[in-house]
Amino acid sequence: MTLAPVMPNRPSAPSPTRVGTRRVARRAAVVLELIATVALAKPGAPAKGGAPAAAPSARTAALEPGSDTGLTAQRQPLLDRRGHMALLVDEPRAASEAVAGLTESQGGKLEEQTQRQVVIRVPVGRVDALIARLHEVGTVRQRSVTTRDIGIERTDLGARLANAARTRARLLALEQRSQSVDDSLLVERRLALVDEEIARLQAAWTALERRGNLATLTVLLLPRAETAPENVPQLRLPFPWLDRLTLSALLDTDPSSRNTNRGASRYIDSNLDLGLQFEGTRLDRLPDEHDRACAVAAAIRLRGVVGTDPIGVALGTDLALGGNGFLYDAALLLGMGLSIGAYSSMGLVAGLGHSGWTGRHVKPGLDIPLELFLIVDAGDAARLMLFAQPRWAFTHSRDQGSPNTPFGDELSVGGAVLVPAMFGNDELDEGGLRIGGAYTELSGTRAYTVTLGVGVGAVDY
């Protein structure tokens, strides 16, 4: 019988699985203790297990607020005082230096100093004394002092700072018990975040204490007599009417600000606008996408109001003929007019029209236009005419040809400016260059029109 050799007993090596399990368990314990440290780090919270918290180290104690900023001091009022003064002085520069000298004599310091304004910080107990001395610098035009209690903010900051210091002490104790590099790194990262929070809270604490100890006073220095403005040469424009084309001249509706002719009556009695012009029109989006129709037409267009004191009659007429096929537009309009102050008139008119453009462009047909127009007369500076006109078309191919009009089948909007620089020597009858344009939607297409010609305006009161 053969005997098998007997091997000596040796301790078995731990398996990799068991080693990994121990590391995971130890790492989980550190994480749980970190969570418990943060959760229990509240003002007045006991240490883990009911035992008293360890005494903070010298480094931790340095982060705590001092004895003079403890909870007892935090409950005391802390006042933030801010003042504003306006002084009427003879020489702002000398007054600014005088204010700076008075501030230093009261133990304060300058925050900002210019020729017209001085911002100073002065101990709270000396604010009233400094304000009384500032009466010597100039005449007080305005004075206000506001006081706000910021003690609650200091109490909140003190509690948060003490809480952060206790959290840091616990993290330091946990770091000493760490048994691996990974655990130490985890605690150090958390410790860095707590240190950053402590630094931010300490900066806020310092700023709050500074606001409570030093009051802010802003002193505005107003000169008694402003220096005369420099003699700057006035810009002369090449056309005299440009000097009078200002926003105030266009928007002023006060008759008393005009000359005697304009101020004799409150309302415009009649206001007519006539244009003799050439119109260039381009038609887009025809059935053939490459087809673009352009034409030039000669036109006469008249708009006006009569007997408006303030309500009267409004009228209008259109007549245009052009080439590239045969383009024409004719309409006769009548309605109600209204005068708005001494500068503008408005009319709402309706009537009958007939228009078309041969050559497969726009089918000729009868239509009913409804137009709202506005005429603004700024005297010899400029005249402005604006209009909006929806139309109902009787031609089937022109039905519902505009996607943007709320009613009707076609839509035209536009306007023109009359620059009275050619003839007319008074404000009632004036003529000059007329420039304008219009946008039209009809038959599912769009038309763009540019106008250039001569205009005439007539106003009566």
**Largest beta sheet: what is the strand line-up?**
6-7-8-9-10-11-12-13-14-15
Average residue pLDDT: 75
Contiguous helical run count: 10
The major sheet is characterized as: 10 strands, antiparallel, barrel
Low-pLDDT parts are 1-19, 40-74, 255-265, 424-428
Characterize the structure shown:
The protein has 461 residues and is of the alpha+beta class. It has two domains: 185 residues, no CATH class; 219 residues, Porin (Beta Barrel), CATH 2.40.160. Strands 6-7-8-9-10-11-12-13-14-15 form a ten-stranded antiparallel beta barrel. Strands 2-3-5-1-4 form a five-stranded mixed beta sheet.
SSE topology sketch:
Blueprint: H1 16-40, H2 58-61, H3 71-74, E1 79-89, H4 92-105, E2 109-113, E3 117-123, H5 127-134, E4 139-149, H6 151-176, H7 181-213, E5 214-223, H8 240-243, H9 247-251, H10 260-263, E6 270-284, E7 293-306, E8 311-322, E9 327-340, E10 344-357, E11 362-377, E12 383-393, E13 410-423, E14 429-442, E15 445-460
Parallel strand pairs: 1-5
Antiparallel strand pairs: 1-4, 2-3, 3-5, 6-7, 6-15, 7-8, 8-9, 9-10, 10-11, 11-12, 12-13, 13-14, 14-15
Helix pairs in contact: 1-6, 1-7, 6-7
